[in-house]
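Q: Hi! First time doing this. I have a protein sequence and I read that you can turn it into a structure. Is that right? Here it is:
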Amino acid sequence: MPRIDFITPLHRQTRRDYLARVNEFSKAEAAKVAKRFDREYWDGDRKFGYGGMKYDGRWRVVAEAMAKHYGLKAGQRILDVGCGKGFLLYEFTQVVPGVEVAGLDISSYAVEHAKEEVRPFLRVGHARELPYDNASFDLIISINTLHNLPCFDLDRALKEIQRVGRANRYIVVESWRNEEEKTNLLYWQLTCESFYSTEGWEWWFKQCGYQGDWGYIFFE
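A: Yes, that's right. Below is the predicted 3D structure, encoded as structure tokens:
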């Protein structure tokens, strides 16, 4: 169950003004809006979330790296828990023609506005109760999603990811290694419910019997 980093180069492409995040608009009000996970979160003003999530191909390099690392082949099945608009799943279909993809997200807005090529394979649902059979996916990914769950749902979600996978699993969550990164995360986040250091996350993985890989997003 090693730590692997596929995401940091992509994360560092975006510049963040942490102090502006808390000084220019009510952080509490922004969080209330963001946690609806509707249009404002995905395609509204940056203070409420992504500030407009449009397809631009940036996830292709991530899909290529994961496909190579996990040896993905045509006919294998990939599930994205917290798939958003399905951009990464779309890239998997381009990088490994013939793979089967499925995605789950709590946001009906994201699913309705997903990349049209993969939209039929996405559904609205919650990570704590995955609507899939045991051991039904060759790779399960969850990128920047599980830290949005309170501890009682996090426990169930990790166990569900373990249950429906039959081979490889990869989780990415926001975390910190020092007080500066912890403070920056608290300033920047809008939807997090689970705040843990890297040691805390690894305790959770072990506690829930998660047998897969993981990575972190740090706010440096």
